[in-house]
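Milestone M4 deliverable, item 7.
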Amino acid sequence: MERGSSGRAQRRIARIGKQLEASEEKNADQGLMMTETMSVGLPALDLSRAFPQATPASSFPPLVSDYFQLHDLLSKEDQDLRMRVRTVMEKEVAPIMAEYWEKAEFPFEIVPKMASLNIAGGTIQGYGCPGLSILGSAIAAAEVARVDASCSTFILVHSSLAMLTIAMCGSEQQKQKYLPQLAKLDTIACWALTEPDYGSDASSLSTTATKAKGGWILNGQKRWIGNSTFADVAVIFARNTETNQINGFIVRKGTPGYRATKIENKIGLRIVQNGDIVLKDAFIPDDDRLPGINSFADTNKVLAISRIMVAWQPIGVTMGVYDMCHRYLLERKQFGAPLASLQINQEKLVQMLGNIQAMALVGWRLCKLYDSGKMTPGQASLAKSWNTKRARETVALGRELLGGNGILVDFLVAKAFCDLEPIYTYEGTYEVNALVTGREVTGIASIRPRKA
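Output delivered:
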């Protein structure tokens, strides 16, 4: 009896073992099939299949956001420049930017394309620079930003901050030495004012410059410096230990005691390589001290002009978002009809369009005030702060219009939504720029809090 029971038990165990082996083989086959399926790609990863009624941003939409026909207010030269920049950005830059944005890497392959546009140096006359009108330079900045805000920040840091500082505050020798190569983008520049402890309170910077035989010794730190991880030259601001005033210096890559490291984990302008700069007993020759910067007021002269360009960045960003939303609403169908046929979507689209026209006209008028010599720092600050605030509202509406696709980088709007946040903050936060204008219109300074 016991021997019979034992035999049955053994046969049962053997049977279960064979079943387990068969099951494992089946699972292995299924796993292989799944691996093979995953290796060739699921249809959902192909946007043309997943969203057949919505074209991704790699095929950029035509411009339909110039509703009040700003183009007609431009000179023939500026119109041609606008179209040239638009063509290169749409055809050659747009297809690759989402990939680099996701990786938070800079696409060095676009540098020759940007150089071919001949816009680096903007309004600077001579030294191989294009000598554009202020409006032409602003329009070019907007056209770059329409496709990619990071790309426009790269060129604005290089051109409207670093190159402009050398042009306005450098010696003739420095202009001859640096500007021609910078204009061709053969060398790249960054501009270092902000510090870890001093953002909005930039005039209180603590980086020091101490006179030494034949030059200066720089010590300190800078933060949020765009282009810094690969720039060939950096315009650095430091406090003169003898005069306690702000001076400017050109620091070349490879200078002993100079180091730049990338800031990771940004949610906006991910392509821009913002960095932390450390200066430890970095020796800068006398020839590389900028003679025209002897106080923070001299730095502000550069910022007042560069804010014109930054005021045009959100114009370009929102134009691109509107153009994408306009095409998307016409292409994408829900409930048997294009999304554009819904009243609520049309109202949002028109609200976006109205914001863009107002922003563009503010930017256009600011350029005209500059041309006539009437522009004030308060006017530049108002244009920057007001335009970025309206742009924030506009891209938020665009994100809503795209529904679930509004959070995908592939459809431009999510990327622009994130990229606008740092633009809203840099070159003076919204609040600081508003208070610069407030000080100008009231005669009362309120930026610095009263000390207890």
